[in-house]
Amino acid sequence: MEEIWVWADKFGLSEEQLPRDANALSSLTELSLIEKSITKVPQSIGNLKNLKSLDLSYNCDMDALPESMDKLINLEELHLSAISLKKLPKNLTNLINLKY
Asked: For the chain, what is the HEC assignment?
């Protein structure tokens, strides 16, 4: 969890956006990071197993997603509008609950 908190602090994400409490973070179901000038997402994002919706839209300098994304087994929505991705993680197809 420490890695994700360091990452959140680096990009100025608030406590409301990304809780700094381990229990609150692990039970997080929605994470909206629209237009936050994020350039990368940490591998530890895969630890957020309860996440159902992740919105990374309009973080134009982000060119890759971590391979750990395939661990977000409950993810139903992944929003990636206006991102310059060069490729998707190869195991993204393992997200069987992904609808959007």
From this structure: CHHHHHHHHHCCCCCCCCCCCHHHHHCCCEEECCCCCCCCCCHHHHHCCCCCEEECCCCCCCCCCCHHHHHCCCCCEEECCCCCCCCCCHHHHHCCCCCC
